[in-house]
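Subject: for your reference before the review

Hello V.,

The reviewers asked for a structural picture of the protein, and I figured it would be easier to keep everything in one thread rather than splitting it across files. Below is the amino acid sequence we used in the manuscript, unchanged from the supplementary table.
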Amino acid sequence: MTGEHPLISVVIPVYNSEKTLAACLDSLRRLSWSPVEIIMIDDGSSDASPEILKQYGDAIRVIRIPNAGPSRARNIGIRQARGEFVAFTDSDCIVHPDWLNELFRGFTDPRIAGVGGDQQSPPDESPFGRLVHEFMKSIGFVADYVKTAHDMITTRHNPTCNVLYQKSALIDAGGFDEGLWPGEDVDLDMKIIRQGHELRYNPAAVVYHYRPDTPVGFHRMMYRYGWAQAYLVRKYGPFRLIHYEPAILIALISFLMALALMSPLSALCLCIAGIAGTFGYFLFKTRSMEKSAAFLSLFFSLLFQWNRGFIQGIFSWRKR
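And here is what came back from the structure prediction:
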């Protein structure tokens, strides 16, 4: 695309984000793109977030609503946005100054409706949060949430912590499913692709994303992801590699149980080989025994919590 820069509206839902909100807002003020409008949707925060937002005065536009979840908050932001393009990030993210420039650079064809970018750890990330981020990078090929590509590629999904859309594509797709979280961004991208559009990923478009800083937070996040993916499978059928994981895991467990009845030693050896193989993969990725052991622990925690959420989601016919 050529000519003057179009106006980009940056929409960010805010809910009890006092720990990271100021850093997010400060990074937005350093954006090199112009013109830009910043729309913060205060989704019924009960902490100091409203007071922090007030400190930025006319530099941002604040819309306050009763708590209803990030999907509704983003839909309100879309309707209020004046820009031809709408960008999304989260209140626990810090954006690079060239973030919007790099996202916009991906719109090289009229068929492209959205462009996403890379997620990295903030400099002051907690040790556990940094570990979680590195772990998610190491398994990103499965979930397509944290990507590892080094060049601009076509993709089927960009998380809403780092993405820019044509506003018209968002409106045509009907916006976000307001009863779904998380997974509402996967649902949106599915609708956009089914309308004949394309999505791109540019690793040069960077946001620094804070991760859960405790094991409890990580467990809760994995459970929620599993539940949301089950809802999407009920809606569309399996359409991502990770959607087949529960069936594969159940088949593997069933095989091991049957094998244990016939040959307990063989079943035990197979389990040990599987654990050793997983550890070996992480060792290959990290070159660190200590970090590989930590990744192995996170991996089994993910397996349990994600599948627990997925199974409960499959048999639950209501949104959360």
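For the response letter, the relevant points are probably these. The first helix runs from residue 21 to 29. The two ends are 40 Å apart (CA to CA).

Happy to draft the paragraph if you're swamped.

O.
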